[in-house]
Amino acid sequence: MRRAGAVAWNTFREAVRDRVLYNLVFFALLMMVAAIFVGGISIGIEELVIKSLGLSAISVIGLLIAMFIGVGLVYKEMDKRTLYALLAKPVRRWEFLLGKFGGLVLTLAVNTLAMAAGLFAALLYVKQHLERTDAVLLIAIYFILLKVMLVVALALLFSCYTTPLLAILFTSGLYIAGLFVEDMRTVQFVIPNPAIQTLLRGLSYLLPNFENFNVMAAAAHGRGIPGALILQNTAYAVLYSGIVLLVAAAVFSRRNLK
Amino acid sequence: MPDAAIEIENLTKDYPFGFLHLKKKRSLEGLTMQVESGEVFGFLGPNGAGKSTTIKLLVGLIFPDAGSARILGKSITDIEMHRDIGYLPEQPYFYDYLTAAEVLDYFARFHDLTAADRRERVARMLKKVGLETARKIQLRKYSKGMLQRVGLAQAILHDPKVVILDEPMSGLDPIGRREVRDIILELKRDGRTVLFSTHILSDAEMLCDRVGVIVGGKLRGVGAPSEIVGMKAQGMEILFELPAGGPNAGAIIAKATKTGDRYRLQVTEEELYPALEQLRGVGAKILSVAQVKASLEEYFMNLIDADRAQAAAVEVSGK
How far apart are the first and last CA of chain B? Predict the structure, then answer.
């Protein structure tokens, strides 16, 4: 695990020096502009607008970083041959993959925490105080982090055996499909063909269910989120990511580095 | 420790190509050889001969289709084997955003060294490869030669017993080449085993106890460099100058090649002494007499031509 940790720290350092965290400047500007102008255009719903805008921005920025950096995590190292010297060291290929995954998740966690701090600062500016119900935002942000962790795992899997362009297509395709998992489960009952019903049912369990992580509306309105959902989403994201990483390790373990 | 540091048995590698990767091109065919403990072994061959493929198989970057190999008695599939080896990839490339000191520290972490040990070794290696003053510069600003030095430093950072270098002189200026040669000789003095690939004969002659020649994925010979090259000695070369206004040098000059004020004359060993007598007779100043060896390129070309001739013969007899 120490070796995976070294890879993770290096991946984080690469992201920071590659100016990935510069997106925070954009987020900060967005929050500042929103906080200053929202009062004038949305009387009475400033808080809702700030919360919705902030959570959406955190989600979109997180997803973009997870996909665009994630699909190059392994491919870039193979393409530039930086991996050659590393894999001649006593490091297993799965440790390298785990490290790359951990490094990007760490980057996203730091990024998300910084954006969360920005959101609360904007909220404080608009409301002049914070309430206990605002803490629900933290759960919504935690779910966003779980969601992007799952996206990183998928991007890493595709990064092991295909080009970044195809990996982006596959990852974004799976993400979009994963937003309609609940619909697949309900629509199967109105389709008479039993084969299609079985297919949709199978797909709905196989595809990552990203819709489960979306509690942005509830959080923006200050509604509580059940503890069971927190546990369920945490377990789901960890298990699903774990399985995807296992598949990635199996694919990568026999990959010839030409 | 076994006598053979590297044992390779029937190692074979095919690369798939074409649509759906259904076709296969054989890159290495039944390679069997040994590198003895403590020796410097040169792996010679033209580009595409299978040198890098063999090295990549040894360090676990690619996987064999047949055969096996062991380093210091451990299978190349055993992760523990990697503790004892150092590897310099061909034309190495490292993380642009790291400095030389950072990249060496990063690689040292995989060898479970303490922070103090890492610091000491990184400083020592940077000094050894002449990058002490450039230690804090990010690698994206490094030249090809400087990257080669970083590559060499990371390969020997952890005092490996077996050092495998893929074209270590590539991209280096004469001073850099000299420094790499010194490092290889120092490794030998310390009792390390060194396997390095090259297509430059002089490097092999200067450094290697033995060389292996590989062409077309097949091992074509193993032995001392002089044995390999000695087989192809092609006569003698006389370098001389003629005095201004001297006697007519006659027919012998017609056979010589003039470069500036100097003449080069190639003769067989039997013709050497008569030629020297003739040159003395015309007052020539003999500057040097040296044995003419086939260049490695010629040696490779002969092997390739022999392969082609054999393939053509098989084709004809098949008809």
Answer: 53
Chain A residue set in contact with B, beta carbons under 8 Å? 2-3, 6, 10, 13-14, 17-18, 80-82, 84-92, 254, 256-258
Amino acid in the structure at residue B129? V
Residue A224 has a pLDDT of 86
Long-range contacts of A40-44 (CB under 8 A, 24+ apart): none
Backbone angles phi, psi at B25, to 5 degrees: -115, 130
In terms of DSSP bridges, do strands B193-198 and B162-166 run parallel, antiparallel, or are they unpaired? Answer: parallel
Cβ distance A84 to B60 less than 8 Å, yes or no, reads no
Scanning chain A, the segments in alpha helix (DSSP H) are 2-17, 23-41, 46-70, 75-79, 82-87, 93-127, 136-159, 164-178, 181-187, 194-206, 216-220, 227-253
pLDDT of B231 reads: 54
Report the alpha-carbon distance of residue A182 to residue A180 in Å, rounded: 6
- Angstrom distance (rounded) from CA A34 to CA A39: 9
Provide, as residue numbers in chain A, all residues whose Cβ is less than 8 Å from the Cβ of B83: 90
Instruction: Specify the pTM.
Output: 0.84
What residues of chain A lie within 8 A of the CB of B53, using their CB? none
Give every CB contact of residue A51 below 8 A, 6+ residues apart in sequence. A119, A123, A137, A219, A220
CB-based burial label for B36 (10 Å; 0-12, 13-18, 19+): middle
Domains and CATH numbers, chain B: 4-230 (3.40.50.300), 233-293 (3.30.70)
Chain B residues whose CB is inside 8 A of the A85 CB are 87-89, 92, 94, 107, 151, 154-155
Query: What local confidence, expressed as pLDDT, does residue B230 receive?
Result: 58
CB B152 within 8 A of CB B183: yes
pLDDT at residue A138, as a whole number: 95
User: What angle is formed at CA B262 by the lines to CA B259 and CA B266, rounded to 5 degrees?
Assistant: 85
Cα–Cα distance for residue pair A246/A254, rounded to 1 Å: 13
Q: Which two tokens stand for residue A258?
A: 């030409």
Confidence of residue B2 (pLDDT cuts 50, 70, 90): very low
Confidence check on the interface: ipTM exceeds 0.90, yes or no: no
